């Protein structure tokens, strides 16, 4: 026993040191003095090591001691539950370790780590190993949370954790029951859905008042300019979203104030949104999630600055995020009802409406919904579900594609440029030209220049946003044209010639979605990177076309600035700031999928895959670390927790069925 304790402590110390150095590693360019350069390999190795390690001082020693303690307790906890990881997580964890460290390297140095030689690369590999181990430990705690803490019926066999009880309410005195606050609390509990919506909306109201009529960026003005023909009408912003916005704008003008029309749009949209998020919280409650956690989700939507700040903004992304969440909620509910043989037509109609609404408000959602819907239809066919129910889902896609054809052929609106999906390949080309322009052959030079203006291409390259490069495209992507075929062929050929530049460009344009990097500087990505709240109502591009749209009350400028600064306080507060960390949502989604695979609940993977596909579209997007693009993932993640509650209900129901059958057999035998 003593030997086991000693081995456990030694293992904890080793892992703790590894995690500490991974956490405190200094990602910076190393410099060697002439004396060190000429001092031999050992001197150079020691010099590089001293520059990248960051273990000096009492604070760092204290951090290490805390990490060792946490590791020791974690290993002990794992032993108590006889936890086994399984093979899959040992594939996922190294991917996280590699991606996280490469992202940190590109953030801090804008270079891959191998450029500084073998010793630096050795330490990078150690750091990758550290982050891999950290991921494994985190995976255990996520598993433990899901298995033993998330649900009301979860029982900790080792500690005998108690489920929630109503005994406390029984002990209340008659007078306290009749008090106003207790009666209000009782009403909220018995009308949980509507009270949740009211709570969220009340927390959003100050933002709506202070930012009247709404904050508006280029996209809002752009949508109006597209609809009213101020510029060439294309479907860059979904035409349905443009139409809804323009209808309220026109209504406001008829009532005497375009600003009031925009405010009405925001108000009506936000009312629908609070009911969607309240429905999600209510689903968690019905699934059997513990009160503490579904109430935290309610608070998350009510007071987290990003949701309130987006609620006062006029762009399409606010509503689109809620509609995608609605799609996830209806999808999870439908699967559960199918599993318990209670799948009425209304559940399919609800899912179909969610598909239509979300797909018509964001162009990229359809690419996330179609693959999982096809898998869902196959599952329904296997389960021999009535064909008319399957037809409802198919009809939803027919409506989406039919409406788009009407927009293109009936209204004469042109399709959006395909250059949007070429953001990442363009970024790769631009970085490669920047680093290797003098090495390009005449054929390579011409193939690139036929598609992207190559003069000044390297200088225009911005690793955070692809707009400066997309704007240099001479034509939209067309796989049938000779120029584009030559460019594609050259692109893949150069990938073999300059793999480091390609990898660096890809990581530099995407790390914000999967790597735990510090915040990008304010204003990065054309004001899109990070958690931006758009504290203005103007447009450099289209403001002159709609001069009537602006903040009406200058006296509220100070209040608006105060709200802006409040978001920065939140963003720099321990634990609260985690709500703005995109990578955290990404890897929690991955871990939820891992747990479902462990449980062999594959059909419930479909909503998780839908969210993961959306993460991939963000990675392929024009902007790195953009919370505006990522908002539907952040809103949908809490809803995925309901899956585990429904699985628990299914298992409980199956046990009841088995018990009932045993009783019946016993009675028959008697």
Description:
The protein has 670 residues and is mainly α. The chain has 31 helices and no strands. Helix 5 packs across helix 6 (118-149) and helix 28 packs antiparallel against helix 29 (605-619).
Distance between the termini: 53 Å
Which structural class is indicated by helix and strand composition? Answer: mainly alpha
**Overall helicity:** 55-70%
Number of helical stretches of at least 4 residues: 31
Rounded mean pLDDT is 91
**Low-confidence residue ranges:** 155-173
Shape descriptor reads: globular
Report the biggest beta sheet as strand number plus sense, adding barrel if it closes: none
The quaternary state of the protein chains shown equals single chain
Q: In percent terms, what proportion of residues is strand?
A: under 5%
Strand count = 0
Radius of gyration: 28 Å
What key phrases describe this protein's structure?
31 helices, 0% strand, single chain, 670 residues, globular, mainly alpha
Secondary structure blueprint with pairings:
Elements: H1 2-24, H2 34-37, H3 41-52, H4 58-80, H5 89-109, H6 118-149, H7 167-170, H8 174-177, H9 180-190, H10 192-210, H11 218-227, H12 239-254, H13 258-287, H14 291-303, H15 305-311, H16 316-339, H17 345-361, H18 365-382, H19 387-410, H20 423-436, H21 442-449, H22 457-460, H23 467-470, H24 482-497, H25 499-510, H26 524-527, H27 557-571, H28 582-599, H29 605-619, H30 627-640, H31 642-669
Helix pairs in contact: 1-4, 1-6, 5-6, 5-25, 9-10, 10-13, 10-14, 10-15, 11-12, 12-13, 13-14, 13-16, 13-31, 14-15, 16-17, 16-30, 17-19, 18-19, 18-29, 20-25, 21-24, 28-29, 28-30, 29-30
């Amino acid at each position: 026993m003593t030997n086991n304790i000693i081995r456990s402590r030694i293992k904890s110390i080793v892992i703790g040191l590894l995690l500490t150095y991974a956490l405190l590693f200094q990602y910076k360019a190393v410099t060697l003095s002439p004396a060190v350069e000429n001092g031999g390999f050992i001197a150079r190795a020691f010099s590089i090591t001293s520059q990248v390690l960051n273990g000096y001082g009492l604070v760092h020693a204290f951090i290490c001691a805390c990490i060792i303690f946490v590791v020791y307790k974690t290993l002990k906890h794992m032993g108590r539950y006889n936890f086994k990881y399984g093979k899959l997580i040992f594939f996922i964890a190294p991917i996280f370790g590699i991606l996280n460290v490469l992202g940190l390297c590109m953030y801090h140095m804008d270079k891959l780590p191998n450029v500084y030689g073998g010793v630096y690369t050795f330490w990078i590999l150690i750091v990758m190993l550290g982050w891999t181990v950290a991921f494994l430990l985190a995976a255990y705690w996520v598993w433990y949370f899901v298995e033993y803490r998330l649900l009301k019926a979860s029982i900790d066999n080792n500690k005998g954790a108690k489920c929630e009880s109503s005994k406390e309410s029984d002990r209340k005195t008659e007078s306290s029951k009749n008090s106003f606050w207790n009666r209000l609390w009782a009403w909220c509990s018995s009308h949980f859905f509507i009270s949740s919506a009211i709570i969220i909306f009340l927390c959003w109201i100050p933002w709506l008042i202070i930012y009247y009529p709404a904050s508006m960026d280029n996209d809002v003005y752009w949508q109006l300019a597209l609809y009213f023909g101020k510029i060439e009408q294309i479907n860059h912003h979904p035409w349905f979203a443009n139409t809804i916005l323009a209808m309220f704008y026109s209504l406001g003008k008829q009532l005497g104030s375009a600003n009031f029309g925009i405010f009405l749009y925001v108000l009506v949209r936000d009312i629908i949104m609070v009911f969607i998020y309240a429905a999600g919280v209510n689903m968690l409650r019905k699934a059997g999630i513990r009160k503490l956690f579904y109430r935290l989700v309610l608070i998350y939507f009510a007071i987290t600055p990003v949701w309130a700040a987006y609620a006062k903004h006029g762009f399409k992304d606010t509503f689109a995020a809620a509609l995608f969440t609605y799609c996830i909620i209806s999808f999870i509910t439908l699967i559960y009802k199918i599993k318990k043989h209670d799948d009425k037509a209304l559940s399919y109609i609800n899912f179909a409406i969610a598909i239509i609404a979300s797909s018509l408000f964001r162009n990229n959602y359809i690419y996330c919904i179609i693959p999982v819907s096809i898998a869902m239809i196959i599952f329904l066919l296997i389960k021999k579900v009535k064909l008319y129910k399957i037809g409802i889902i198919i009809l939803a896609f027919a409506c989406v594609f039919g409406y788009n054809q009407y927009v293109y052929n009936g209204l004469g609106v042109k399709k959006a440029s395909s250059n949007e999906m070429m953001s990442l390949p363009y970024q790769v080309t631009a970085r490669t030209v920047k680093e290797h322009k003098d090495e390009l052959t005449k054929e390579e030079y011409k193939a690139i220049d036929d598609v992207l203006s190559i003069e000044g291409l390297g200088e225009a390259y911005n690793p955070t946003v692809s707009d400066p490069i997309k704007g240099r495209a001479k034509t939209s992507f067309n796989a049938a044209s000779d120029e584009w075929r030559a460019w594609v062929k050259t692109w893949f050929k150069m990938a073999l010639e300059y793999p480091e530049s390609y990898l660096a460009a890809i990581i530099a344009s995407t790390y914000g979605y999967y790597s735990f990097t510090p915040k990008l500087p304010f204003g990065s990505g054309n004001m899109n990177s990070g958690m931006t709240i758009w504290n203005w109502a103007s447009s450099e591009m289209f403001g002159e076309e709609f001069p009537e749209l602006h903040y009406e009350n200058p006296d509220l400028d100070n209040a608006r600035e105060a709200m802006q600064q409040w978001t920065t306080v939140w963003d720099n507060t321990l634990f609260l700031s985690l709500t703005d960390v995109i990578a955290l949502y990404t890897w929690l989604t991955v871990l939820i999928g891992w747990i479902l695979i462990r449980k062999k609940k594959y059909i419930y993977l479909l909503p998780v895959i839908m969210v993961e596909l959306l993460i991939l579209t963000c990675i392929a997007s024009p902007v790195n670390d953009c919370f505006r693009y990522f908002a539907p993932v952040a809103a949908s993640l809490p809803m995925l927790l309901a899956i585990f509650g429904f699985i628990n209900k299914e298992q409980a129901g199956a046990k009841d069925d088995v018990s009932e059958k045993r009783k019946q057999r016993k009675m028959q035998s008697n």
